[in-house]
Amino acid sequence: KDKGIYKIISGSISKNAQLEIEPIYENLSITSIIKDDDKNILFSTKKNGIFRLNPLNQLIHISKENGLETNEINLLHKDRNGNLWIGSNGAGLIKLNLSAFTYYDNINGLNKNNIFGISHDNDGNVWVVTSDDGVFKYDGKNSFHYKEKDGLGSNNVKAIVKDEKGNLWFATNNGLTKYTNGIFKNYTTSDGLPSNQTKSLLIDVKGNLWIGTNGGGLVKYDFKTFKTYTTKNGLSHNYIHSLFEDSKENIWIGTGNGINKLTNETFIAFPSSKLCNPYISSITEDKYGIIWFGTDRCLTRYDGIDFKSFTTKNGLSSDVIYLVHFNKRGNLWVGTNNGIDKINFNSYGQIDAIKNYGFKEGFVGIECNSRAIYEDEKNNLWIGTVKGLIKYNPSDDRENVFESKTYITNVKLFFEPVDWLKFTQNLTKWDNLPIDIELNHNQNHLSFEFNSINLTQPKGIKYSFILEGFDENWIPATTKDVATYSNLPPGNYIFKVKSRNNDGVWNQEPATFSFSINPPFWKTWWFYILATIIIFYSVFKISSIKEKRQLEISRELEFKVKERTLVIEKQRDEKEVLLKEIHHRVKNNMQVINSLLSIQSSYTKDKNALALFGEAQNRIRSMALIHEKMYQSGDLSKIDFEDYILALTKDLISTYSINKDIRLDLQIKPIKFGIDTLIPIGLLLNEIISNTLKYAFVNKPSGTISIYLKQKEHDEYELIIGDDGIGMKQGLLEKDDETLGMELIKVFVSQVDGEITHLDKKGTYYKIIFKKREKK
Question: d(Cα 776, Cα 772) in Å, to the nearest integer?
């Protein structure tokens, strides 16, 4: 009784049998024994917690110091999912999470809170370095301590690395230290180092040793000489916090001012604005060639083109990242101040799932130390934390393959609980939720509450949901257990929710809730039909009324138009009569004047006076002829130019009693002019033709008078008038002592905004360019 744990080596259990036993752990009061699915044997005790004996005969103690709620255990039980349950004394029922983490709290040196570097030597010993107590070697059973007195450069050690020959190198605050076959050798500034404050170490694929210093820049050691790189060589900063060599043999450097990459002896600096924080605590590369950086504000990913940051919003346990490491199993490990995270990737290199390990999962160290991670040949991870050294054995990290059962527990309207019995009697038996409920159009704000049961790791559960009929895709995984939809339009919906356990296993059958929201009466099919009928009838009725009214208006307008047309026609007829009367009277008056001049001329014998009387009479006749043509014309406002010219010319030939063969050459386009244009043009022609008849054909039996008229652009016209008589001297138009006839010609030309030129041709020819003057 109360003797501890013993193993039977040989013999059989029977009355009076002699058994050969081996003591494993003595002086314990064992309360129960059980075997788990991994062939571990577990022993519960009255006051000393639980002991686990693995197949390798290694005994692991589980107590309050590494996560157990109490050390007083009465009973152990295994359920059908392989979960282990503890019946305790005073702490109730406890679920035991057997961890893949081993905590070396009882090994001297391995329980230090300031471990900043871990490595193995060629003999399989684990070495850890601390920031104030030197280095420790652990051979699996015992630890060995080395300090300054043993030859170490300083007790403040920040990094450790093993070279190709198996030598161990330590970065201290008093230079670089090498350990070979039990002997320490120190290198300082006197040996070529730029600074004794060394902080980070790296062995590249060529076997060179790289040393990062505090303020002295980056150092390359080929085991013969030290070569220093500083800001003068292109570094962003001389404080080097972290070093890493990628698969392309580029050296990545985390400096005091962001990231640098050394390629072919050339430094490439990346802008600090691309990073959430320029302090880079740790660097690694995944199998896809992506570079990962740990900072105290986020985890950063660089794919060769862009930087992308990840935080707690993406599933990390913390934004403060102390270490990053890509292990041989293809996982990215991220050590934070709140545990350590394992990131799984899909086949496209994108993050598929993040698993957080904290105190409940056996990672009792909680806060990791910068760059303090090492992977041994067996794929175990050794991690330095503020509570000492922790080993992660991936073989003990069993995946939770059990699906989480998901339930919809409540449905609320406008955030308020609902008594669904007031809506329907068709309810589920367990949760009293309605089945295929129909809601009114104003009951369109719903909240769905749900949960999932997974006894292995309840806090690792995440949910994804979709409202079919509204959402196009499933909502990304979230820890929220409520989904709210507001202002849902009328329609049929199915809300589906599924859950994922802590290892990313989704349940295949989601929980569902079907419902429909009826449209308001003004959006129902019968209302649409009724509204359509009413609209068509209204349109027909309005069209009929409008058509009838339009017909009445048309008739009324037609009557008014006819009435107005009669008035206008009467006024037009009256106006035509009046205009004809005016033109007739003007013509008669001019004939009276012409008769008076004729009578007056009979009282004188003076030839000059008689000539003047004759010219005046000709001019009056030319104007009278215009008015005669006006009242004879059907238009009353315009006269055909060719008819007028023909009548005027014949009248002048008759007046001057020319007994010669005078031929008229008229080339006139069908053009009509009003009185404002025709009077000055008629008087102009009267003067020129009169002069022609008087002077052009002296001593000639015959002659030709030519008159040409054509329209040019817009209202501009070209008139050419001339004869083939004896001709006129050139320059007569430009002389100052011109005759009255020539002066009148110029006056008449100016009245139609024209220009007259004397053409150089046989006989006498004038070209007049003028514009039509019409009152609009």
Answer: 12
